[in-house]
Amino acid sequence: MAKKISSDMLINDIISIDPGNAAILMAAGMHCVNCMAAAGETLEEAAAVHGLDPKELEDEINDYLEKKGE
Fold first, then answer.
1. Residue 40 in 3-state DSSP?
2. What is the reported pTM?
3. Could you read off the pLDDT of 29-62 as tens digits, one per residue?
4. Among residues 67, 70, 54, which one has the least CA distance to residue 14?
5. Environment class of 11 (CB within 10 Å of its CB; exposed 0-12, middle 13-18, buried 19+)
6. Which residues contact 31 (CB under 8 A, 6 or more apart)?
């Protein structure tokens, strides 16, 4: 069973689940995912700062994780 993330998880934890998640976040416009401050933010907080929809990002990452886990 593939792992899943949620929008209340820290960016650092999301990336530690799968490094490919960083590429998804960066493609969405979060170019600071490796920044120490960003690492301590939740996906929801970081999405708000960047004007992004956290649910869309959560779904995109979970789709990626599900396909990778197949």
1. coil
2. 0.89
3. 887 777 777 778 999 999 998 999 999 999 999 9
4. 54
5. buried
6. none
